[in-house]
Amino acid sequence: MIEQNPRAGRPSLEELRAVAQPPTVVGRRNSEHWAGTLYLRRMSLHFTRAILPTGISANGVTWLMILVGVIGAAVLVIPSWWAVLACAFLMQFQILIDCSDGEVARWRGTSSPMGVYLDRVGHYVTEAALPIALGVHVDGGLGSIGGWTTVGALTACVVLLKKSFGDIVHVARHYAGLPKGEEDAQTAASRSAGLRSARSLLRFFPFFRAFVAIEFSLITLVAATLGLVLSAVDVVGEGVVLQWWLLLSLPLALATAGGFLLMIVTSRRFDA
């Protein structure tokens, strides 16, 4: 994981920002998480500047991102509100590190296909592990795995399918001998006017983002907190709201995956 740094010395924040956060990166459509744009990119630059002197490679930072995601999901299995809070914090930290690995790669000029692959692995593993971990949490922990864990596992399978639908587009284009597809709105838009209208309405209820690590962990934290409040006033049991969220997550995941597949096959993503 250690590599020779081709850029001597510790850069200033301005020097690092110019190389590691160019507009072509931070302005990418569908590639920059809203949290990155809003605040994490400001924080990640400090993190990147701090770790550069250690000599850790960009891929080493990505492995750290994967580890943090796995730990965050593992913490969530503990049936405690504090575990839910810790998971939400760790998901924030994971995305910060996810910003940093690319910054390290751009600063050192070491971007690679392996880095892209590891990044995909990190997101696949984390976003599949979270619903399973929530199911274990609702069941009462690792010692009492039951039906709620099954619901979480089914949701995780659908989340993985949805994520694979997007990546398989690039596989299909590669096998067809086509160049990498564009990410612009015109290419991604459905040819169906009805589907385009339905997609635009989702701006007001973007449930399809619920299974991204940050969003899932924050929704879970809100549900757990609401459950505590309602339990304190004897409205419902402490874990009932989390059960509702877990039950709702499966049909939402199915709708997200099905809608995404439909948008892809009716788009211009496969045009030469």
From TrEMBL:
One of its GO terms (biological process) is phospholipid biosynthetic process. GO terms for molecular function: phosphotransferase activity, for other substituted phosphate groups. Keywords: Membrane, Transmembrane, Transmembrane helix. The keyword Signal does not apply. InterPro entries: CDP-OH_P_trans, CDP-OH_PTrfase_TM_dom. The keyword Membrane applies. The chain crosses the membrane at residues 50-75, 207-230, 242-265. One of its GO terms (cellular component) is membrane. This is Phosphatidylglycerophosphate synthase.
